[in-house]
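Working notes for the structural subgroup meeting. M.R. asked for a predicted model of this chain before we commit to crystallization trials. I am recording the input and output together here so anyone reviewing the notebook later can reproduce the run.

Input as submitted:
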Amino acid sequence: MLKKSQKIIVGNWKMNPSSAEEARRIFLSAKKQALKLKNIFIVVCPPFIYLQQCKKLFIGDYIALGGQNICKEHSGSFTGEISVNMLKNIGAEYCIIGHSERRAMGETNEIVALKNRVALSAGLKVVLCVGEKERDINVAYLDFLKNQIKESLYKVERKYIKDIIIAYEPIWAIGSKEAMTPSDIYEMTIFIKKTLSDIYGQEEALKVRVIYGGAVTFRNAEDIIVEGKVDGLLVGHESVNQDGFRRIVKTINEIN
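Returned structure, recorded in token form:
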């Protein structure tokens, strides 16, 4: 169970690895780190096909499993989709929703909002991804981000705000050699909190954890957390790199 004092590290494996045995090795490595490091909480989000296998490999409340996506419908003729009940029944507690790679496939804010409501009402915790495609000198990206947050949370009730984590992932930084500067991350964290405050009020907005994703490595993780003042990280590529992920979580764990 995630404690208030802990930083949260969400490992998004994306469409990796290619074998169940490699998935087992990666998960056991993450589990080993979670057992040793008390100042962080790890959420592992493997491809759906590996979730049940991962669930069998851990006991306790020091690590959690999450899905990378869900269907906005509960059941029916939706070939290839995964329902919220399937995800819950296989052992997931979290779900990534609105990832930029899903949005690039045509997922709109309206669809994201529907998925959020389905997941939250079923008892899942949501990692809601938001972020601008590019930055412009007229700062139109701020309006883009504000609208994206508001529309992605459309009709999400106040009582669910405690179960939402906002993952800020500027799309232009994903897969790049350099993450966003910590000072810029801090500014965007404040902006996100202000936007949430406009929707739900300041008291509720302060309950929401904001994490950062985009070119995260062990080299920049500490600066992002300390200077960027975020509550954790959404780690993509490095989450399936056992050594890289180990070094990230160890670095974050040692921050006072």
